[in-house]
Amino acid sequence: MHPSEESVTARPAWRQLPRNVWIVTATSFLTDISSNMLWDLIPLFLANVLGVKTSVIGLIEGLAETTASLLKIFSGWLSDRLGARKWLTVSGYGLSTLAKPFLYGVTSWWGVLLVRFADRVGKGIRTAPRDALVADSIDAQHRGLAFGLHRAGDTAGAALGILIALLIVLATGAGAVTLSRETFQIVVLASIVPAVLAVIVLAVGARDVPVDSRREPPRLTLRGFDRRFYVFLLAVVVFTLGNSADAFLILRAQERGLSVAGVMGMVLTFNVIYALVSGPAGLLSDRIGRRRLIVGGWLVYGLLYLGFAVVDQAWQMWALFGLYGIYYGAVEGSARALVADLVPADQRGTAYGVYNAAVGVMTLPASLIAGVLWSGLGGWAGLGPSAPFLFGAGMALLAVALLTGGLRGSGREIPGEG
């Protein structure tokens, strides 16, 4: 069935969203159960077990994301060229699943880097075709709802994964201030089952929506896109430069006195709020416009990062990190829906690749800057734990200035902007 036939009849009721939206949401739900059992413990594993400095942690987080980012452009273009999204998405999830068990025996920071790199390569392969598959399966007026549901499912899985990891931490070392290798290894083993199930669900349940397109291989250029897509990309790049890896927030929480179990509880709170906000925020973006919601989310982010910079007590860090979920819920799904609003259907895969690559490429300098600002480089001792968050708040305000009014003018109609 062509998307116009399937999606036009789809009313904005949750139960009547197309099959692909639910299948992709279920896949992301299961994947994030697995991933968030592990990735939120990675900075603690590096710092507590392997004794790695924040500057190296920033390098690992940034390099793993950035080096795989160009794959997002290629996989998105390839899905446009083939007119098929499903099997590229399945292969990406499969590669990430194969990489995770190797964390069980890792004994050095470069071993962690290799596993993170393989996982990010998998994400680089799957992300653009997956987002294009969702966009192809729903009409423009309900696109925010579809992406909001996907983010809600993704984040609900993250919350459940954190809860499972928290229970393991409580069972093996309740009250411990630092993470042990044995606890981390148990979490690695537990993470494998939902990761495998996610690949099976997607492979069996998803259906390709045909896309008629034959495009030249992408050259490192943005020619042919709407001007407003360029403006949006520029604002995203500026924002991301100040949006260092959330590993620094986890290290900040531990620095403020939270135990390992406390850190996991804090991250769980964040994911619950993120999941609760994502669906309604996506629906709201259909009604008031994506730009307004993204600007509002970035302003919330800036205020929260100022809070992270001056926080004094562990409970304050927990509260602010919970509220951090409002920013994610408002922006993540809305930004993906906005990409589809700004480009024609036969360019969506490529556009999602460019968008995700732009975010990924900026992750390396963002995380390096944060690590150096925190703990310095060479003989310089850095500016301390507050510095990365003050920098992030400033970049968020600059991004808001760029985006405000930047999407006005001629071009494709944007839902809610008329």
Highlighted features:
418 residues; mainly alpha; Growth Hormone, Chain: A; 16 helices; 73% helix; globular; disordered N terminus
Helix content range: over 70%
User: So, the CATH homologous superfamily?
Assistant: MFS general substrate transporter like domains
Major β-sheet, in short?
none
The termini sit apart by: 30 Å
Number of strands: 0
Which value, in Å, is the CA radius of gyration? Answer: 20 Å
The name CATH uses for the topology is Growth Hormone, Chain: A
CATH architecture: Up-down Bundle
State the name of the first-level CATH class: Mainly Alpha
The tally of helices reads 16
Question: Taking all residues together, what is the mean pLDDT?
Answer: 83
Low-pLDDT stretches: 1-12
- Taken from the alpha-carbon principal axes, the silhouette is globular
Overall number of structural domains: 1
What structural class results from the helix and strand content? mainly alpha
Strand content: under 5%
Give the ordered list of helices and strands: HHHHHHHHHHHHHHHH
Descriptive report:
The chain has 418 residues and is mostly helical. It has one domain: Up-down Bundle (Growth Hormone, Chain: A), CATH 1.20.1250.20. It contains 16 helices and no strands. The protein has helices spanning 3-8, 19-38, 42-49, 54-66, 69-82, 86-99, 109-136, 143-173, 181-205, 227-241, 247-255, 260-288, 290-310, 314-342, 348-375, 387-403. The longest helix is centred in the middle third of the chain and has 31 residues, at 143-173. The model is unreliable at 1-12 (pLDDT under 50).
